Amino acid sequence: MKESPLFWPAYLKGNVLFVLDETALPEKFYYIKVKNTNEAVKVIRDMKTRAFGQLLVVLNTFLLELNNVGAIHELPLQHKLEKIATTLNASRPTFPFAEVTGMVVGWGAQAMSKGEDIKATIERNIHGYLQAIRARRLDRVRRISEVIKDGQKVLTHCNVSGELAMAAQLCQEQNKRVSFYATETRPYFQGSKLTCWELKRAGADVTLVADNAVGSLLAKRMVDLVIVGSDRSCANGDIANKIGTYQIAVLAKEFEIPMYALTQPSNKIPTGKDIPIELRDADELLKSTGKSIAPKGTKGFYPGFDVVSHDLIKQPIAIDVR
Fold first, then answer.
1. Domain termination residue (choose one: 135, 159, 187)
2. Domain assignment of residue 161, given as a range
């Protein structure tokens, strides 16, 4: 099984973090060079990478900054870790970066209390953590392929960072005839630019559908199951995912079509009502390629995510990344 570039879209090489520019796909394929925390925050806020890619950016930013550290006392180094964490946490409110950065800061505090080398401890733990995530995500790819049966048609929304395309490859190896519908996912078009791109690279049969055609698609029984990702999970099983996921979930329940969500279990937030939803810049909705697509003075409302109640999800396909 060949990995999709979106499965692991950021990597550290020396003193540079290379981040795949997902906004440039499919026209261009290149990596942005990130050299410090502020540049890492920029690629996150500008959505140059999303979801799992942003998690990779957060973790690798600590490694990047540690690579730039010379001789420094343990206490100032711990303060530096805390400052990096605070800056990263403020980049996007909906994402649970604080859970991850808090873990890294905690490793540093624990090492300092034991008289251990903070830098060596952080580097060892982050590398181990990333290796574990890779193994668990590869296992989830296998479980996704098991959920999809021969002859089924799958609807997906936004992009699930390589996993669905790789599951499609496994289905092909198992001689399953499977096809996919991908929503456009406005206004960034992650479905058309990313999901269709990587599914085609995997040799899969994929059809792009307008976001507002989902109801018709499901009503006509053209879909057998829905598979989406999640950017935030709650203790009760509620999730937050790309805006538009909620209406798909409601329609799937109405027409008795099972919906699966790829999740990362967390008990930090009790329910979906407690998830902070990010309101994106209205210009992302009102402009395209820098040009206005609405009359002057028109207001824009663009929440980046919406919440899906756990009772609308048939089954979470989970990995524990804690």
1. 135
2. 150-318
End-of-domain residue from the set 85, 107, 135: 135
Q: Does residue 227 contact residue 160 with C-beta atoms inside 8 Å?
A: yes
Check 231, 274, 306, 320 and give the catalytic one. Answer: 231
**pLDDT(322) > 50:** no
pLDDT in tens, 77-86: 999 999 999 9
| 211 catalytically annotated | no
Q: Kindly report the pTM of this predicted structure.
A: 0.90
Residues 129 and 180 grouped into a single domain: no
Check whether residue 175 and residue 307 sit in a common domain.
yes
C-alpha pair distances (Å), 226 with each of 45, 158, 211, 319 = 28, 12, 14, 19
Predicted pLDDT of residue 74: 66
Token pair listed for 29: 């394929």
**Total domains present in the chain:** 2
